[in-house]
Amino acid sequence: MLRRELFKILGAGAVLPVLSPEAFAFFQEAQPAKSYALRTLNPHQNETVVAMIDQIIPATETPGAKGARVNEFIDVILTEWATEEERRNFLDGLAGVDEQSNTLFGKNFVQASSAQQIALLQAMDDVAMSIHYKKVRRSTAETEEERDPQLRGNFFKVFKGITVHGYYTSEIGYSQEMKEQIIPGALHGCTPVPLEKNT
Amino acid sequence: MANTSYDAIIVGSGITGGWAAKELTEKGLNTLVLEAGRPIVPERDYVEHKPVWELKYRNWDDRAVRERTQHVQRQCDYACDEYSSKFFVNDLENPYQTDPGKPFAWIRGRQVGGKSIMWGRQSYRWSDLDFEANARDGIAVDWPIRYADIAPWYDYVEDFAGISGQAEGLPQLPDGKFLPPMEMTCVELDARDAIKKHYGDERMITIGRSAVLTRTHKGRAACHYCGVCHRGCITQSYFSSLNSTLPAAQKTGKLTVRPYSVAHSLIFDSKSRRVTGVRVVDGQTKNSMEFKGRIVFLCAATLESARILLNSATSEFPNGLANSSGELGHNLMDHHMGSGASGNMPGHEEKTTFGNRPNGIYIPRYRNVKTKHKDFIRGYGYQGGGGREGWSRGYSMAGIGVEFKKALKSPGPWGFSLGGFGESLPDHNNYVEVNKDVPDAWGIPTLKIHYQWTPNELAMSRDIAVQAAEMLAAVGAHNIQVDQNITPPGLAIHEMGTARMGRDPKTSVLNEHNQAHDAKNLFVTDGSCMTSASCVNPSLTYMALTARACDFAVSQMKKNEL
Fold first, then answer.
1. For an interface test with A, which of B391, B397, B481 has the most A Cβ atoms less than 10 Å from its Cβ?
2. pLDDT above 90 (res A6)
3. Plot region of B497 (φ>0 → left; ψ -120 to 50 → alpha; else → beta)
4. Which pTM does this prediction carry?
5. φ, ψ for residue B515, nearest 5 deg
6. Which of B49, B242, B348, B483 to mutate to test the interface with A (most CBs of A within 10 A)?
7. Which of A121, B428, B469, B528 has the fewest CB atoms within 10 Å, measured from its CB?
8. What is the rounded average pLDDT of the residues B328-347?
9. Distance between CA atoms of residues B118 and B144, nearest Å
């Protein structure tokens, strides 16, 4: 599709810039690995993560965060990106979800009913979203924590942030859900919202 | 054995080195371009269409590696990211020092094309308000040129580079030869009308003037609005050395580009009073070598060019070559930024934008244009824009589930933001010196940078924040957030002034043709030549000065003056 798009644009111009076949190789390579082996999340933690992301961004007419395998992105970030402290906080927070679920419902989060899961996550969201976080640009950040704050602060804020990021930067989130195009091919400054985005 | 003798040697292949290469080769000179970094193959190295899901960290970047090797470079947050950090230097290989508590962010790109690959592309002409500023204020030294001297060269470089923009007839921001302007968004159009109504002729909003093609131009395709120019552009739709000037130079058959050539110093012959060549350390083998040239153009960027000249000291010039004035390395300037404001704009619920515009709006300077401000001299402009928020508002938007997902699918509220770029003053006390004790990875002495904003910049920065908020209120914005803040110098990446032009060899390094007072066949045409800083983005002026200096140099060669 990208290849077709690019040709469309080039065909519209009067000239053809130098383009070699290698230029198009980008569009075909580097597909995500078909199977990913978890490295940080154990099976129970992974099931909890999958249940949570599935409630935060569920499947609708397009796949949700589970279908986009956001749990695998979370595992990559926890394994390779997080500091030891951030990883520990994340896993502690995850264990805390089970604790709360047990207190409220007498069972782990994954065993709770969908309505119970939603109730718990909604309560966590109410707290997390009421906290005001000052936006810090990397150019003015003074500490490493300020430069990369994604895994810092309230657990549910962190969890929701990584879920949103992982989903909308996936091919499913970007192309199927948001219908974004890498090469729009035109610019309109003030144009009607397309029907499919007018929710 | 490879040729080591040329008509002209250019140090650097960025915006000015690329222009010098084009001009000198087209005028028939056999020209060598020395570039410290690696070659760039667009088909291999450009990454503007790589989907974000193919990045391992989804553009959160390889944080640990970046913190270790690019802790300075990654402060350039619009471009030094998981895609484009490869276009910025490794800070471990390229150390420099600053004074405690006085940071300077030195952002560098070493590769064929230099920083022209990642530059912001905003392209504005200076005016006589700028060229007369030092003389009027009795600061530093007077520019040896006026707008009339450079105007035809602005025409010349704009005609080749392709600058999109809107003619407005402002004396403080002269119009150029523009390609069609990019469209403003719904709220930008509203804001433009409201500013006009509220401020009359004093202030105005225009579309940014950008070196991005809005139609096919000189064999290069129109922009396709992928919106991430700083990752490269396979259709060559924005101006960079790689996309424009170097291919033109290549066509002449007179160009040799030598990557991995780290310039160490210039060779000066005290008898003939000429620079005879360039000492180079091979970036890969670390072997030393020399190249000879009849003329030398230093286009290595402001701080690198100063460093090369400081490292070229001789017994006659113990404080650096071409430094009989003592001003080499001094009068370092960068624009100050960080202050501004943002808010939400009402209306237009049913409208949005399409395409990723690699440009914003511009509010030209209005301070000290017609009236005198009580707290500071000179002025500032704003860059900014208005658009609808995207899915990333989901990080902090309440809700989960189907409704949350549905809400994020539609465009968010209209936002509008303004960020100021302010002029800074030339100050002899803002300077660089060579630190022989700290070599870089190639054994070349590095710089110690001493820089501190002057009270004039601090006063101006406060006004930038206050006025941004006032203007947002005037255009009907709500939820206004004010940023009053001044970023560390260097971060505007408009550093300039370390080898200033002037009329008097006693107080300046270069004359009105960018020619060193102390060595007639040496030209310095990057930002180091600047005598004052203006508040507009400087690259277009560097291009025009470079083309003008090349014309002068070749005419002098033809007269056997060089």
1. B391
2. no
3. left
4. 0.94
5. -95, 135
6. B49
7. B428
8. 97
9. 31
Nearest to B400 among A13, A55, A139 (CB): A55
Token digits of residue B67? 């913190």
A35 in helix, strand or coil?
A: coil
CA–CA separation, B371 and A153 (whole Å): 49
Residues 6+ apart with CB under 8 A from B344: B413, B414, B415, B416, B477, B478, B479
| Cα pseudo-dihedral A92, A94, A96, A98, rounded to 10 | -140
How does residue A29 score in pLDDT terms, banded at 50, 70 and 90?
Answer: very low
Contact assignment for A178 to B223 by CB distance below 8 Å: no
> Phi and psi at residue B395, in whole multiples of 5°?
-60, -35
Residues on chain B touching A86 (C-beta within 8 angstroms): none
Q: How far is CA B439 from the centre of its chain?
A: 26
pLDDT of residue B2: 61
Which three-class secondary structure string do you get for B517-534? Answer: CCEEEEEECCHHHCCCCC
The verdict on A114 touching B (C-beta cutoff 8 Å) is no
Phi, psi of A78 (to 5 degrees): -65, -35
- The three-state secondary structure class of B88 is coil
Q: Given CB atoms, is A185 within the 8 Å cutoff of chain B?
A: yes
- pLDDT (tens digit per residue) in B235-289: 999 999 999 999 999 999 999 999 999 999 999 999 999 999 999 999 999 999 9
Give the torsion through C-alpha atoms of B73, B356, B494, B204, to 10 deg: -150
**Is the CB of B394 less than 8 angstroms away from the CB of A197?**
no
Residues B221, B236 contacting (CB under 8 angstroms)? yes
Question: What is the DSSP code (8-state) at residue A77?
Answer: I
Instruction: Write down the residue that tokens 């592309």 correspond to.
Output: B121
Give the pLDDT confidence score for residue B38 in this predicted structure. 98
Using H for helix, E for strand and C for coil, what is the string for B292-310?
EEEEEEECCCHHHHHHHHH
Give the closest-approach CA distance of A185 to chain B in angstroms: 4
The amino acid at residue B449 is: I
SS3 at position A36: coil
ipTM of the complex: 0.95
pLDDT over threshold 80, residue B168: yes
Q: Which of A148, A168, A153 is nearest to A70 (CA)?
A: A168
CB contact under 8 Å between B182 and A19, yes or no, is no
Chain B: give the shortest CA distance to residue A83, in Å. Answer: 9
> Do A174 and B183 make contact, defined as CB atoms within 8 angstroms?
no
